[in-house]
Amino acid sequence: MKRLTSDDDLLAGQKREQKGGGRGFVVLVAACLGQFLVVLDVSVVNVALPSMRADLGMSAPGLQWVLNAYTITFAGLMLLGGRAADLFGRKTTFLCGLGLFTAASLAGGLAQEGWQLVAARAAQGVGAAVLSPATLTILTSSFPEGPARARAIGTWTAVGAGGGAAGGLVGGVLTDALSWRWVLLINVPVGAVVLVAAAFWLTERRVRGGRRLDLPGAALVTGGLAAVAYGVVQTESVGWSAPGALLPLGGGLLLLGCFVAVEARVRAPLVPLRVFRAGTVSAANAAMFINGMAMFSMWFFISLYMQNVLEFTPLQAGLGFIPQSLSIVLASKLAPRLMAFTGARNLAVVGVLVAAVGCLWQSGMHADGTYATTVLVPGVLMAIGVGLAATPLATLATAGAAPEEAGLVSGLVNTSRTMGGALGIAVLTTVATAHGGDSSDPAEMAHGLGVSFVVSAVVLTVSVALMLTALPGRATPPARSGR
């Protein structure tokens, strides 16, 4: 298959793909399914953790790392994955990331020891970090800026959000009907089908030759992000003032500072600092980071409330998420149409405000609550808000990216959201615990979880202020940056 090696070739390739409606549809489906798997595996293991512990004899700290091993490697390596897509080809990177993710899922599903499961989850995170930026890059390089790209990103956002929301349902159904192993093994047949479709239908895209991967920068940013993520995770067990949390946090920040210094001096940086000179890109990523802090933990806390306070089974809790899942998907699909009338910034602001209202309503959860009043309505509001805000922010964050930097910008989008979520779940879990969120008494637990949603509403208000002051109103996206 012919490789595209210049900007003119890239534009010509886009036109050819746009004429082939069937090919464009398959490209969209492949990219969205890849993103669905990546996001699904952030939350799908939650309801299966007790079964994993019983079957493999894992300790409580070991069980925590079934979640953390995936999140840390995913967040820490995503910028490297995005840049690799630019330099080595979007199709090649997509296939490599999905292949590793699928193989690691098989290894995790067949694990016989706790350490094997944790190692497999870490490998899944590496594959996800390579795969996720490539999925968005494939879309932004296959659809021109404007309504077509907005619709594609809307679909990608909806599917990704649906993956996060569906994690509890999928995990509950598979664990109850089969076993915990199938929350990982289910990725294998789906991944295999997407691999075959992508191998035949995706067109390779890469920038001009002669560019090398910035290995020092890659090592510094990966080590820095991974150390910060590890430090944040440690705060859940040792607190914010303990050396076990402060040392990795401080070391991570130091590495990130060194990364900025290196990127300002090397000839072919991993992250050209000029990308951040575009205020729209910086502000949109900052907003996604803040929104991730507030909303990433929503599914986790609501799941705890349904199972530990309302005494739902894992399957019932999973079924309870169906309205939220549908709401976030529908809102994400509606967002591109609304953007044409409101503008990207205004729609994002409306979405975040709706989510904040949902958080305030959710903060009123109590031991005698009912599903309809304390879960369904506020959960749907939060889901609608997230769906309405995510698409315009992703559109603003990727608009105007040069072809050779599309993977980088896509990696920044995913890194901002994931790192914000990792930080948010640690902070909000600490808040909930401090107010009784880990108590065995249902009333105290409900109160602690409710306080965390009050904090989420405050964080979302900060995001609204940032967007109103730093993002353009109804202005068109920024022009494509130069080299």
From TrEMBL:
Q: Name one GO biological process term.
A: response to antibiotic
Q: Which UniProt keywords apply?
A: Antibiotic resistance, Cell membrane, Membrane, Transmembrane, Transmembrane helix, Transport
Q: Which InterPro entries match?
A: EmrB-like, MFS, MFS_dom, MFS_trans_sf, Sugar_transporter_CS
Question: How is the protein disposed in the membrane?
Answer: Multi-pass membrane protein
The answer, when asked if NADP is one of the entry's keywords, is no
Q: Where are the transmembrane segments?
A: 25-50, 62-80, 92-110, 122-141, 153-174, 180-203, 215-233, 245-262, 283-306, 343-363, 375-397, 449-471
The Major facilitator superfamily (MFS) profile domain covers which part of the protein? Answer: 27-475
Q: Which GO terms describe its molecular function?
A: transmembrane transporter activity
Location relative to the cell: Cell membrane
Q: Name one GO cellular component term.
A: plasma membrane
Identify the PANTHER family for this entry: BLR6921 PROTEIN, MAJOR FACILITATOR SUPERFAMILY MULTIDRUG TRANSPORTER MFSC
What this protein is called in its record is MFS transporter
